[in-house]
Design goal:
This protein is an alpha/beta fold. It has helices at 2-9, 56-72, 84-89, and strands spanning 31-34, 75-81, 96-103, 115-122, 136-137, 150-153.
Amino acid sequence: NIKACHRTLANASIRWGDFSSIEAEVLAGDFIYLDPPYHPIGELSFTRYTKENFTEFDQMRLRDFVLRLTERGAHVMLSNSNTPFIRELYAGEPFRHHVVLAPRAVNCKPLERNHVEELLITNYPTAYGSTQRGAIAAGSPIRSRPARQLHRIVA
């Protein structure tokens, strides 16, 4: 419902750019959603969204950024590929993993356009807790505590 989205995002700040650009603005209680270029799930995975590739070093830089925001008291959610590298990178406290099935409508082979596993990572507990494979379908609500601001940063 577009009106519900409008009401929800009325006081939000939505940005595109390097995630580090917002660090000085983040306050305790803010909700931050990060949607970086995903880690490749295979050799043929498309992950080059910009002329500068988002490397494993950048993925580690993002994890360290999330840890700094956690220390400030921000509530962070990010999405990424459900790969061993990402699961290991975000292993342990304060991270929680939530596997979701996300539809993929783009594929050069139409019969292979199906759902893929993605990983939602939070630094706070959700109503779902940590999930097992396929427990949350894409589009299911993820509940969190009210937040003062919303940031969507695409690296």
